[in-house]
Every structure is written in C-alpha cells, then in structure tokens.
Amino acid sequence: MTAETSGTAEVAVRVRGLEKSYRNVAVLRGVDFDVARGSVFALLGSNGAGKTTVIRILATLLRADAGSILVDGADVATQATRVRGSISLTGQFAAVDEILSGRENLLLVARLRHVKDPSRVADQLLERFALTEAASRRVETYSGGMRRRLDIAMSLIGDPRIIFLDEPTTGLDPQSRLEVWQAVRELAGNGTTVLLSTQYLGEAEQLADRIAILHEGRIIVDGSLAELKQLLPPATVEYVEKQPTLEDVFLAVVGGDRGTTDVGLGRPAPMREEER
User: Fold this and answer.
1) What share of the chain is helix, strand, coil (3-state, %, to 5)?
2) 101 and 146 in contact (C-beta within 8 Å)?
3) pLDDT in tens, 111-140
C-alpha cells in the first residue's frame, strides 16, 4: 500500500519525503502520507517514534530538514501564516486556565481571535461538547475528560478546517478517554479534518478512517483498518467463551455516560434472573 489516498477524495494534508534530525539522530527518514479532507487520520506509533515531531512540523512550530508538506493547499515552509489560519493544534496536555470557568476560557480565546459575538460562540461550543451544566464552574473542578473536551472546544474557535490532536487521551482514565473519543467523532461528523497521533491501538481502531504506522522514522504501512487486517493471514474460526474485559467491568460498574454506547467496546450482558 502507498501513502496515496484512494479514489478522488480531496487532500487536506500532503506529506512527501519529510525528514528531521536532532544533532546526529535521524527522527524522520522520509515520511509520506495523505490525509483526505473531512476524515480522521491516525498516526500510530510507540513513544519516540516521531509522531509529535511530525505534528509540530505540520503546525509550523518546527522546520523540517527536507521534504514537501502542504496543509490545506499551502506550503508549510513558505506559507506558514496561511497554514496557521487553517489549522488548530491540541497538544498532549490540556491548555486551559484552571482558575477561570469553562465559559470564561472560551470567551478569552474567542476575544483573542477577534471572532464575532464571542458569547454566542462560547455557548454553542459548551452545548456541543456537553459542558453547559459546568460552564460557570472553575476548570480546576473538572474531570480529565471535561478538561480535554474544553481544550478541544477552545481549539475550534475560529472554525479551523484542520485540527491536529497530539495524543489527546494521554493520562486519561477509561471514562474520560471515551468522552474524548466521542468529541473526535463529532468533529469528523461536522466535516473537520482530524489528524490524530496516538500510541493506543484501540484508539486508532475506533476513530480512524485511515491509519499510518510510524516506525523508526518511516511510515511502514498506511491504509484503512480493513486494508491493514489483510496484511495478516486469514483468521481461523474458533468457538470460545467470551469473558468480559476489565474495561467492560469498569464501565458497567461506574455506569458510563457520555459516548459509552457507540464506541463499539460493548458491556457485559445483563445477568439472568437465576444468576442474580
């Protein structure tokens, strides 16, 4: 498989021959991939694989040593200002002000970006990310998932066409992770192009339309989940008793709320009367 997107889908991000070294250590050794507009693209790799370096280069925060990178049709090296006007970046840790309320965080960013009617924009994002009830509370009282949802909401102010999420669920508990997954699904559902870096296999499997595996500075495979599964021998059919996973048990016990019914993880079946 190649890094080319299938069909005639419009490309939001195109990377060719991307290279980056730190002193004598080559981190990226010729990275190639495309991200189709309106899709969720997962850059999957272990710690130190170079995922954050790729995203920092795409976001114009770091200069590549070699390669051609187009983001929303603009060259990252020569049209950085235009690129910045099309994107938003959410890093590995939520960039929110804990002293302010959720609504005040959104209003602050809206005013800094000179958007029209900041109050309306803030209220719409609070509703979209299920934060309306907590809008007046200080962010220091928010859960990890709520902070992440607020962080993503803040990154959407100004209607960026492309959003980069750099390991957005790092350090989150299972419930918070599911909340963030749901937020990413909603982004894609509204037509936002999402480039997601992650080290979690399940995260890429649940969210991505296309997955690229970054290993030792190169993309070694790139395709849909179905295409990647074809790289393995055909599955053999075995009949086994399926036991609930620890995640199933956790979600059943805590009574997961937002996003737990549609992420495909499943829950333990209700006990029959004779089992109670």
Assistant:
1) 35, 25, 40
2) no
3) 988 889 999 999 999 988 889 999 999 999
Is 88:160 a contact under the CB 8 Å cutoff? yes
Beta strand pairing call for 210-215 and 218-223:
antiparallel
| pTM score | 0.77
Q: What is the pLDDT of residues 16-37, one digit of tens each?
A: 999 999 988 999 999 999 999 9
Q: For residue 237, count other CB atoms closer than 10 A to its CB.
A: 5
Token duo for residue 27: 């981190």
Q: How far apart are CA 69 and CA 76, in angstroms?
A: 6
Is the pLDDT assigned to residue 275 strictly greater than 80?
no
Domains of the chain in start order, with CATH, are 11-95+159-231 (3.40.50.300)
Could you give the CA distance from residue 143 to residue 98 in angstroms, rounded to a whole number?
11
User: Which phi and psi angles does 26 have, rounded to 5°?
Assistant: -80, 115
Sheet containing 40-44: which strands, arranged edge to edge?
A: 87-90, 162-166, 193-198, 40-44, 210-215, 218-223
Write the DSSP symbol of residue 138: B
Is beta strand 25-36 parallel, antiparallel or unpaired with respect to 162-166? Answer: unpaired
63 DSSP 8-state letter: -
Nearest partner of 185 among 177, 102, 120, judged by Cα? 177
**pLDDT at residue 258, as a whole number:** 47
